[in-house]
Amino acid sequence: MIFQPTDKAKRILVADREFLARGLKPTLFGDAFHNSMRASWPAFFAGFAVYFLAMNLIFATLFQLGGDCIANARPGSFTDKFFFSVETLATVGYGDMHPADVYAHLIVTVEIFTGLSTLAVFTGLIFARFARPRARVIFADALALGPHDGRAMLMARLANARHSAVTEAEAELWFIHAEDTQEGRRYVRFHPLKLTQERNPIFALSWTLFHPIDAESPLQGLSSEDLAAMEARFLLVFNGHDEASGQRLIVRRAYMAADLRFGHVFSDIVTPAQQEGDPPEVDYRKIHLTEAAAP
Fold first, then answer.
1. Which of 9, 25, 249, 281 could form a cystine bridge with 271, CB 3.0-4.6 A?
2. Which residues cross the membrane (predicted)?
């Protein structure tokens, strides 16, 4: 197949940042499975409904071209042929109307094959969508940069919104920025940020990640103005083994330079027990809250 690029711009989303892409060959049907998995449930069923309606309109038109080829259908009635097509495509077959000649039998044969194939495909897609693991991880809306344990730290926080634990949890934090080369060309650089603890044996409630701002950190000495000029972004990637589904979970969250709060730390979301014997309280409503660090 010859690749034929197009000048039409297409909006794409990469790491929560929008781009206009040109020169790509459209892949609406060539990548139908991927598009079906990415679509929301309302969009998925809306697309199925449009397909179902279009197929029945096509077959109803073919029956209409055959004249009065459907027994017990009103002469010339496109409506009767449309609903006969619906019954045939769904393999229902109420028996009120049936093919009356060879032409109608041929069209019915093709339609039944199409209906069985469609049922198999959409059943598989629905199962794949339900079986796909989805992590309910809450990411804090911002990053904090402030003191922790006597050192300057970049902090990110996430929480598990499900009651089941995630084992073998791992997190990666990346610093992404634009940089001009000596030749004057602008490139995007990716720097992994070393974390004090990048693995968590049991991720059940919340987890705060810490990156020390020291001589080895690419963030050393950078201000908010510097980060804005560098078009800086941060990418947090989380993955782990979900005990409930037995599958691997992968989820990510991107942050812009404006989402970094200098001189702040995250507010505590765990309240100790007020009385002996009572369990501590975890308030997920505070997951996004930060406060100015003590001078």
1. 281
2. 43-65, 102-128
| Residue from 73, 252, 239, 116 nearest 167 by CA | 239
Distances 63 to 49, 58, 91 between C-alpha atoms, Å = 21, 9, 17
End-to-end, the C-alpha distance of the chain in Å comes to 65
Residues 6+ apart with CB under 8 A from 89: 52, 55, 56, 59, 111, 112, 114, 115, 118
pTM over 0.90: no
If residue 206 lies in a helix (H) or strand (E), which one and from where to where? strand 206-212
Domain boundary among 92, 111, 131: 131
Inside any domain, residue 73: yes
Q: Are residues 121 and 141 in the same domain?
A: no
Number of domains in the chain: 2
Q: Which tens digits make up the pLDDT trace of 101-145? A: 999 999 999 999 998 998 899 899 888 888 777 778 899 999 999
Residue that is written with structure tokens 């017990």 in the block: 72
Domain coverage including residue 72: 31-131
